[in-house]
Amino acid sequence: MISVVMSVYNAEKYLKEAIDSILNQTYQDFEFIIINDCSTDSSYAILKDYEKRYKCVRLINNEVNLGLTKNLNKALALAEGEYIARMDADDISDLNRFQRQIDFFKSNATIDILGTYCHDINEHGNTIRTRTVPVSHCDIVKMLPKFSPMSHPTVMFKRSSLEKIGFYNPKFRTSQDLEMWYRASAAGLKFHNIPEFLLKYRVDSNFLARKKFKFRFNDFKLRLECYKHINLPWYMYGYSVIPIILGFVPQSVYNGLKRIDPR
């Protein structure tokens, strides 16, 4: 069984589309654990309606706002599935996503963490760019010091594998996925990405605005700390300033850089 984990905070605009893309999967052996993180819009009412109508939906309503990292760990503590699938409240999963990932796991027993390609979409659901990532474990680990080699909302992983490293580190409110990839790599876990577009990743007009300097500085500090996990040579620590640099470039330049991003 798969345990799908999703954190929700003021996501009413896209929430139904995101949930429906999970409920309508061709692979149906899953539980859907959703944590409402003190939303102030209609998200909770939407979620209660789904909980009433679908037995697979398990809704937890937080009394205090915890943030994504702690919510994911909270959901994981409740999860009963052999596999864990990530999902965000504004994205759209391809209806064959779970089937393709489960089939891959069944045929490739050594893989622990499995992602896919995805399309970036805007507020209207239109594709604005394609997001590819390295496919093989070796190429994924090679990219890790520079950029995140896994698109977090596409990821499915073996619960037993991630239990070995304690899942997400609550110390990090942002970039919690990247930090976990470093620890997973250091622990010898195996990565893979299916070279198929199995998720639509929402990039709205506020996407860059949310990544303020504090976010990018925390990303910088995270990299410096995590490079130790993978014994990165000191002369490669310059990669740590990439998020800082991206925070200062104009929007037009940033868009140009995205076009030549190796992902």
Characterization of this structure:
The chain has eleven helices and nine strands. It has 263 residues and is of the alpha/beta class. Strands 1, 2, 3, 4, 5, 6, 7, 8 and 9 form a nine-stranded mixed sheet that branches. A hairpin with a 5-residue loop joins strand 6 (113-121) and strand 7 (127-131). Helix 9 packs antiparallel against helix 10. The longest helix is centred in the last third of the chain and has 14 residues, at 213-226. The mean pLDDT is 89.
Helix percent reads 25-40%
Radius of gyration: 18 Å
- Separate helix tally: 11
**Proportion of strand residues:** 15-25%
User: How many DSSP-defined strands?
Assistant: 9
* Unreliable stretches: none
Please give the alpha-carbon distance between the first and last residues.
31 Å
What would the average pLDDT be, to the nearest integer? 89
